[in-house]
Amino acid sequence: MAAPASRSALRALRSVPRPSQRAIRPIPRTCIPPRVRAFSVSVRRRDDASDLSEPGHDVRYTTDLYPELKRDSRFTELKQEHVDFFKKTLEDESAVIDGLSKDATDDLEPFNRDWMKKYRGHTKVVLKPKNVEEVSKVLKYCNDNMLAVVPQGGNSGLVGGSVPVFDEVVINLTRMNNIRSFDDVSGILVVDGGVIMENADNFLKEHGYVYPLDLGAKGSAQVGGNLAANAGGLRFLRYGSLHGNVLGIEAVLPDGTIMNDLSKLRKNNTGYDMKQLFIGGEGTIGIITGVSIQCPQRSKAVNVAYFGLESYEKVQKAFKEAKVQLGEILSAFELMDAESQKMVHSHTGNKRPIEGDHPFYCLIETSGSNGEHDNEKLETFLEHVMGEEIVADGVVAQDGTQMAELWRWREGITEAIGHHGGTYKYDLSIPIKDLYKVVEDTRERLESKQLIGEGKVAKAVIGFGHMGDGNVHLNIPVRQYDHEVEAAIEPWVYEWIQKKGGSISAEHGLGIAKAKYIGYQRDETMLKLMRQIKQLYDPKGIMMPYKYLEGVKEHTGAATS
Amino acid sequence: MAAPASRSALRALRSVPRPSQRAIRPIPRTCIPPRVRAFSVSVRRRDDASDLSEPGHDVRYTTDLYPELKRDSRFTELKQEHVDFFKKTLEDESAVIDGLSKDATDDLEPFNRDWMKKYRGHTKVVLKPKNVEEVSKVLKYCNDNMLAVVPQGGNSGLVGGSVPVFDEVVINLTRMNNIRSFDDVSGILVVDGGVIMENADNFLKEHGYVYPLDLGAKGSAQVGGNLAANAGGLRFLRYGSLHGNVLGIEAVLPDGTIMNDLSKLRKNNTGYDMKQLFIGGEGTIGIITGVSIQCPQRSKAVNVAYFGLESYEKVQKAFKEAKVQLGEILSAFELMDAESQKMVHSHTGNKRPIEGDHPFYCLIETSGSNGEHDNEKLETFLEHVMGEEIVADGVVAQDGTQMAELWRWREGITEAIGHHGGTYKYDLSIPIKDLYKVVEDTRERLESKQLIGEGKVAKAVIGFGHMGDGNVHLNIPVRQYDHEVEAAIEPWVYEWIQKKGGSISAEHGLGIAKAKYIGYQRDETMLKLMRQIKQLYDPKGIMMPYKYLEGVKEHTGAATS
Predict the structure, then answer these.
(1) What pLDDT was estimated at residue B51?
(2) How far apart are alpha carbons A67 and A519 in whole angstroms?
(3) Domains of chain B (ranges plus CATH)?
(4) CB-CB under 8 Å, B316 with A261
(5) How close B144 gets to chain A, by Cα (Å)?
(6) Contact across the interface for B502 and A265, Cβ inside 8 Å
(7) Which residue in B251, B210, B217 sits closest to B231, CA to CA?
(8) Which chain A residues have a beta carbon less than 8 Å from that of B324?
(9) What residue stretches are annotated with the FAD-binding PCMH-type domain (chains A, B) (predicted)?
């Protein structure tokens, strides 16, 4: 980074000419420079691939990871007549990957295993319908014939939801990739469920709008999958939840019913808001084939700053001040602890943005419609938090390259942690005042059990995440997966979360990874109500078996959540 | 208004000193000056009261308005033993208004009639439980004994949902008025369902936050009722839907089950989002007793501008430019047509903000964290829309008083229209490009049938509303309610909306007023899915009979929607 580190960086910013004479970073119509996102995607993929592509290191079947899982014998096994029906119905040769009539292991593999290469199923058939009618026909057929089903979008989920466990039929939405309509006055976009996020966003970019969700996996994740998973991601703080942004959906229920709730209206108070059950429903009650979504204006100006802070109390103060002073332009407030930044430093060897050690670091991003105004707001905020000693030290990026470099100290954490024998990962929501305490308590617990440190199994306890959303990622890199370490963390960490009124899955969902822990989150009444919904829509239980509310009670494999 | 009218007003603004030397309107921490809101509430109430308080002019019973409605004989009639149980259970003397043991007509009247004095029921008992356990006990008892129930909040609804039709038991939430918790770092507020919006907002104001919803009826409307009705209102454009802002609810189901989904987390992906069914559920499947809601920072600065425009195409252009140039600070974009402004002018006699006649007028509000920046943005926007001749003329308020005066040209429409024999009112969502066409087509239709104009029944066809949300209010003031006029509008207007993919109820809900028109909005599949939900939660059908999905097929009274 070209900017001098330490407090002088801030002084330098203050003494530059008034905004009108200063060169504002020319990042027209894009919220965050594309480099950052591209970087992020490639990092995560490379990380896991490098880990697992060594000779002889193949992906274990999910059924090996969870040996106590038994195939539900109510489900029919795939027969030739089923495959024939699918081929006849979907017409196009490429629409059915048939592993029954012939060996198609290699062709099926990308649909059987998830991108993290942690989960792997045994399906023999993948269907790629091209429109809602085809989805309806094949899904109804599966339901009539008791064939279990896994709907699949970009297969970029983090909890093993998007791949089969046994021989479930995969219904993949990739060929449903049309942008159906866009109203450039209202910003309302209607697309097929299989449209890739990045394609939707690129389309919107041409019209000055932005897709209200951003993820590292945007290059593969699909819009329908975003909804099914109720994805959170990087724009949540600014644009809020999909439950608010999605205006309508088209979905196919297990019995083949096409539910047309594809409203293009911001307001429509005419009956129960049925679509909401499908948002975060993880494909358990139907397949989302169409989406209508409200898209905001694309921001013309972006700023990124990086701080060191002396305590978690000061982090909270900084967050509060950011909300007050940056107000409507605050678009990210990310937290990284000292351990996480040490790990990035030792992994990348990059010069640290600020000198000296601090227990906490924050990354703040602003996005607004006027670069000069945003700079002024940021400057005033910086002056305040440094003057009040809320922040110990900080730097502000001067151009897109520096923004990408600063973001790397946040987004590179996963990559840096990945270069160990394994990592216990938890995606937690916690009321902000206790957000970091789970990290401290976990560290203390492993220390008291002498499981962490020089020569021990656990290498560190790391906390980082979306502070602005009350969402922390607790990561414990280990030399190798170890039952003693696992037993020290689980179910203790879920009990901890339960006591604090937090969530055991903030944004990743349940899938197969978290399914068995749902009892730590939801009481029996809520579970009963949820099961009623499942029973109502999917009475035969063909959708997403072994997952979501149907988690196994115990498993003995490594925690891979 | 002190500011000179016409184009010179804008020039005056441009030539004033730079923002830093200019006196910024001192409206600290409040989005819109209190006067405006207070004005709005009092106007609406006064309007209807003056109309109906004339001697001999009493409110008709809903059962007279809808003579075809028959009391459902499955429901038990209220007996002494029921009242005794309620009194014993709720303990407090004032918690039961008992019209069975004695004549309590006057005491019951405020709970039997709605604030518009358009709907009036026959209840003999009102219950005011003070906590969720009491709600649970009385609701379970009603369910066990087949007593029909109407949950009631502030009774400020617009579709007759909040008052009984026959002798339903009223469960009023007024005594559940505690603020349960507030986290001033995250802005998450948890309150009883019976907390009045304005009280919630005043509480938040002290902490620098704002309740993410604003309504004329904020002084009486309750938080639980806001959710049940899925209220939209004046902050929708900026803060979005309750489906996105509400983080959790506590609700009592008809069988007395207490559903605790009162999450205080921004993110929680652990199962179906059950609470969403209750948002906009209009009390048909349970009673909302607690609410957790994400509240945004309160804006420090507010601006209001008022424009005249020559065509609806230019209104659309102005809206698009406002979104681009005002971006994150745009908080309202309201549309008023020439007829609406003529009516306000002739009713109030006030000098018009700008000279000359224009077919359309818009009111724009900005709310932001920095007054100087907001002024500059607004100035640039004004320069652009006037330079490009998108806007023909405009003024900008210089202080809170002027803001209130400008808002009055929007908010005073209802009052102005009210001073006629009656008004046919429709609250419609329409894709923005066709938003105003419904007004033009209605006008043309009444003209072609010679029902409008000098000496005719219909006096005008007026369009105004929340342009930014695609929500128009179509109003037809008449000398008296008239079957010929009504027959010309209905169901024609609903068919029109159906063809355009609009909504027959944007923000007011169904209640009893719109219930019978749901078929114009939702297809049989959606209705079936919705009825399944009703059946699941309220199998005996005790909640809100005769309303929502249970609308009568036809009615012969005046359209009072």
Answers:
(1) 35
(2) 21
(3) 7-50+299-414 (3.30.70.2190), 51-172 (3.30.43.10), 179-294 (3.30.465.10)
(4) no
(5) 20
(6) yes
(7) B217
(8) 208, 297, 369
(9) 119-298
pTM for the structure as a whole? 0.88
- Scored b (16 or more CB within 10 A) or e, A24-62 reads bbebeebbbbeebbebbbebbbebbeebeeeeeeebebb
Residue type, B23: A
Q: How far apart are CA B325 and CA B557, in angstroms?
A: 47
Please name the amino acid found at residue B93: E
B204, B266, B526, best to mutate vs chain A, most A CBs in 10 Å: B266
Secondary structure (3-state) at A309:
strand
* Interchain CB contact of B232 with A (< 8 Å): yes
Name which of B194, B95, B179 is nearest B137 in CA terms: B95
**Nearest-Cα residue of chain B relative to residue A326:** B369
Q: How far apart are CA B492 and CA B487, in angstroms?
A: 8
**Tens-place pLDDT, residues B403-460:** 999 999 998 898 888 777 788 889 999 999 999 999 999 999 999 999 999 999 999 9
**Structural element, H or E, at residue A244:** helix A242-245
Identify the segments of chain A with pLDDT beneath 50.
Answer: 1-57, 552-561
Q: Which residues pair with A448 in a beta bridge?
A: none
pLDDT tens digits, B124-169: 999 999 999 999 999 999 999 999 999 999 999 989 999 999 999 9
| Residue for token pair 């709008």 | A209
Which structure tokens are listed for B192?
């009883």
Q: In the predicted model, what is the mean pLDDT of residues B363-368?
A: 96
CB B460 within 8 A of CB B477: yes
Residue B232 tokens, joined: 């939209």
Suggest the residue from B268, B302, B323, B376 to mutate for an interface test with chain A (most A CBs closer than 10 A). B268
Query: What mean pLDDT, rounded, does chain B reach?
Result: 87
Which of A270, A277, A333, A517 to probe the B interface (max B CBs under 10 A)?
A270
Main-chain dihedrals φ then ψ at residue A349, nearest 5 degrees? 75, 5
Q: For residues B243 and A495, is the Cβ–Cβ distance under 8 A? A: no
CB contact B559 to A (< 8 Å):
no
**Phi-psi map region of A283: left, alpha, beta (phi>0 left; psi -120 to 50 alpha):** left
Q: From residue B199, give the alpha-carbon distance in Å to each of A285, B192, B299.
A: 40, 12, 18
Gap from A443 CA to chain B (nearest CA, Å): 24
Report chain B's terminal Cα–Cα distance, integer Å: 34
Chain B contact present for A271, CB below 8 A: yes
Strand A125-127 and strand A169-172: pairing? Answer: parallel
Cross-chain CB nearest to A279 (options B230, B273, B281): B273
Contact yes or no for A362/A309 (Cβ under 8 A):
yes
Q: Is B531 on the interface with A (CB under 8 A)?
A: no
Angle between helices B400-411 and B34-52 in degrees, nearest 10: 30
Q: Does the distance separating the beta carbons of B280 and A272 come in below 8 Å?
A: yes
- Going from the C-alpha of A36 to that of each of A409, A555, B241, B297, the distances in angstroms are 11, 38, 31, 29
- CA distances to A178, A263, B61, B335, B544 from A196, in Å: 10, 21, 55, 36, 43
Task: Please report the residues numbered 439 through 478 in chain B whose beta carbons come closer than 8 angstroms to any beta carbon of chain A.
Answer: 469-471
End-to-end alpha-carbon separation of chain A, Å?
A: 34
Inter-chain CB proximity A373 and B370 less than 8 Å: yes
Burial class (CB in 10 A: 0-12, 13-18, 19+), A141: middle
Contact A319 B236 (CB under 8 A): no
CB A250 within 8 A of CB B486: no
Contact status, residue A510 vs residue A159, Cβ threshold 8 Å: yes
